[in-house]
Design a protein that fits this description.
The protein is an alpha+beta fold and 242 residues long.
Amino acid sequence: MKHIRTGLFALIAISLCLVPVLAAPNPNPAVAPINSRSYGKSYSEWAQAWWTWVLSIPAAQNPATDETGEFGAVGQSGHVWFLASTLFGGDFDRYLTVPNGTALFFPVFNAVFWAPDDLATAAVAAAAAGLDPDSMTDEQLLQFLAGSAVASPTTLKVLVDGKPLKSLESYRAAPEPFELSERDLLDDFGVGPTDFFAADGYWVLLHPLSAGKHTIEIVAATDHGPFAGFATDVTYHLTVQR
């Protein structure tokens, strides 16, 4: 497998313009602001942690390949749990029980690339955009490719208990290029040695839900770029423990 796609797959984290006195209002009170440092990490740091989580789990038990939610609790711990979307698109219903008081972090649409496999593709993409690949580091090339891959998605939607979140395009963040010591998912797909990864995407850090039943529907699609034709619609049926 060449590229990992998760309907849930940013060049740099998008910075919010702040008024000197008043910060821009948060359009979704139930969601941590994109420029916040919530539960001990920034959005970019949570994004790296999410990739570390999903890429370290073997395909047979990976929450991103799981259609029912059977493996949604694999590798989870702490006050923030991760939700996966899909690797290759598709529509799924997943069922998951989470501890009370647990925040949820998940991608709406994201992408990851890695060196050395994707450097040639990144150089071509940079040149097509009018940049000089020879003047860019390998890290800059791959970060540019990741940012291009998720730019301007056709559809970007999250519904929490049937209510849509607003301004999802403003929740874009990218971790710094990173390395992995555990990468069982990639090994299962026959990916060779990697030097580092670069990723980008739109993310949601949802504050803990009340005890009881909830639904989170994640919808994303794009009709251009390396993931043209990608579409996903995943609904999590959550039980928050009392």
